[in-house]
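Quick note —
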Amino acid sequence: MSADYKIALISDIHSNFVALKSVMKEIEKEGVDDIVVAGDNIGLFVQPNQTVEFLQKLDAKVIQGNSEDYLRGYDDGTKAHWSNFHQMTPMVWTHGKLTDDNREYLLQLPAQLTFEACGTSFRVVHGSLDKVNELIYKHETGKIRKKIACAKEDIVICGHNHQQYHMKLDGTLIVNPGSAGISFMGNGIAPYSLIVRTNGKWKVEERQAVYNTHEVAAAMKKSDISNYAPWESMLIRSITDGKVATIAFIKFAYRYAKKNGWDGKGDLVPNEYWHSAYKNFDWANYKCARAHLG
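Predicted structure written out below.
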């Protein structure tokens, strides 16, 4: 049975160009009519220009995420102090590496967008209708109802929490394709979703592509990014082990810094504590709160 219309959804690539290519290889087999990318296109991994240039060739509907919002804050000087904190190394490095054209492309992307297909209205957001960086997990149905399902559109596409899910609340279909770039689903798994219309009805198909994490690690090793060791460990463990190493380490770093003398002033961990935390973190046996991601 052929589909009347098919839309591919991708989100939270985070400059993981290897994962993006694998996802698109699968999507190309589907013969989709449209592609939607729900933000956080760059940040964390080390191939931002390749990622942005690839996206621009897709003729896709693309919005900003909180990573693009961070990029703007650093670019306009609002977050200039980030250059002094290694905790923000990925964004500071990314800003410096992006070509002028690619940076401008990201900064001019809309925070949200709406469109119609087959008489159905869609809204694309990153976090929620109110905030680009609002984390809402699939078990928080009350919050979803208040922050996402209240949209006037029939279908809302979102991202940000790196959690693949879909549900229908109060007549609104909400679809989160998960994070293609850092999914916490296992070794080299990159989720994406399809919204398919057949015989006048829309259905969601959750899919996963598989990519080579060694290729991602090799790109990191070849890059000239300094003070990257904590992030490199967090990211590689997250995409290979399926453990939320990013959240686990960052929480540990804040606790460690305060325990060892940091007064807690400011929103970022001072470099000496950040790197000391890296040396003292139990990378082999750490626990991570992943229940909300299941």
